[in-house]
Amino acid sequence: MKFSVSQSSLAQALSVVAKGMATNSTLPILSGIYIKAEDGVLEFQTTNLNISIRHKIQANVEEDGTTVVSGKILSNIVKTLPDAAVTFEGSGHVMSISCDKSSFRLNTLEPSDFPEFPEFALSRAIELPSSLLSDMVDKVYKVTSKDTSRPILQGILLSVEENTIRLVATDSYRLAVCDSNTETSSSDEAFVTIVPGTTFHDVLGLPSMTETILIGTTDSQVVFVFGNTTYISRKIDGTFPNYRQLLPPSCSTSVKIDVEQFAAALRRVSVIALANPSVRFDVDADGGVMKLSASSPDQGESTELLPVEVEGESMSIALNYHYVFDCVNAAGSEKEVTLELQSTMQPAIFKSYAQINYLYLLMPVRM
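Now predict its structure.
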């Protein structure tokens, strides 16, 4: 095989398929990149047996052929090359690479040993705006569980119905829900699936992303198709927790908080809360202030008063400040969030309303 391609185009292609390479597999072929050159097109494939990625780019192909090269070494080589034409020439189990004044010879693996790219026939599919979807995933992604013993909690519930996209994630200590209205290709029937959180986040961050992304499902797969990229992940089996039963119909106290002031105050108060990540929130309905406080037997204590708008009764609650920060960061550019409280030992709920409506439920800690 023989082909040449620009360094910039090659570097982007490798960064797209890199997520599919196995990092610690006992099978060397799974840490390789399968390359097929044919009819002026280069096709790259990677798989770790859980996800499979295929990406195509234009190239000057002089001789058709297939090969498998070490993904890590090839990526490291291409990153260091100047933005010029890179020529590949392969014969047997050796690949020669040249660019400008640089040249390399790499040992290759047998392409027939590389797993075939999964075939799929989508039972359901929907096309969504990728930029909006990416913003929504960013808001819920950190709430997915890292506990491998409960894989269902590592997923994000995606539902699309009547032009409303909704994402839900929970790790059993907190819950994040966001929704937004947009034109979709949805039919009368709702589109519902559970996507592995890491996969969802990785896909939408790929440099080959287009304005819209097609998401489809089979019995065992979630499939993403955009531009010249196809990304297939194993589906998470199981039933997502019924999150709606956690949402109370009303609240005893509602507090409107300036996000920027709140983030700065929380950052200062939490300096003391090193060993114990608990920060206490005392809402004074009459005074229109919320006191943030933290204490540590070894370090001392900290307090800060924050002016707020309060509806309802005075209330106190203690929350894990790491989790509160995740909420504040997810609120992003929003100027205001509303904190809703029922009682000291019931969950706190943060809400913000904009193009993307956001709800973040957090279990309290003991005071």
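The domain at 2-113 is CATH 3.10.150.10 (DNA Polymerase III; Chain A, domain 2).
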